[in-house]
Specification:
It is built from 6 helices and 2 strands; from the N terminus they run H-H-H-H-H-E-E-H. The protein has about 170 residues and is mostly helical. It is rod-shaped and about 130 Å long.
Length: about 170
Amino acid sequence: MNNIEEQLWNYIDGTSSPEEQKAISLLIEQDEVYRKKYKELLLLNAEFSAIELDEPPMAFTYNVMESIRNEHAQAPLKARIDKRIVNGIGLFFVLTISAILIYVLANVQWSAGLSGKTTLNFTMPHIAQYLTNPLMQGFLFFDVILALYTFDSYLRRKNLTKTYTSVQSGGQQK
């Protein structure tokens, strides 16, 4: 947009200062270029004013807010549990139980006596060699940390519930 159009738009919109308005009105009266451009911009401004703006339907805001509310209502308040984590934990236990079962079946000594009875002879492995002092300390340390984390989660949940009920009752504690 050139300088003449900018000045005239400011004049038409009423955003120019009083001194500029006087100067532009004199230019419109005296200069043919300004007068033509002014009439052209006045017609354009009238057309812009006549255009009816598109408005959303009356229930648009309500529908948007309702869809947001429904979207949040479908999600549980707590974080969703990832199915891969659950499947991983289940796979761990299945593999552990399978390994123990294979170990037991591999170490069973099957023998059949003369009388036709089958006897099973299984000896427990000596696991005392695996339960060394540093291993037990690490295991106990992990259990203590896990217990503290669980206790902290319990206290936080209890505190949030207490805060939520006090907010619901209008700030009055029961």
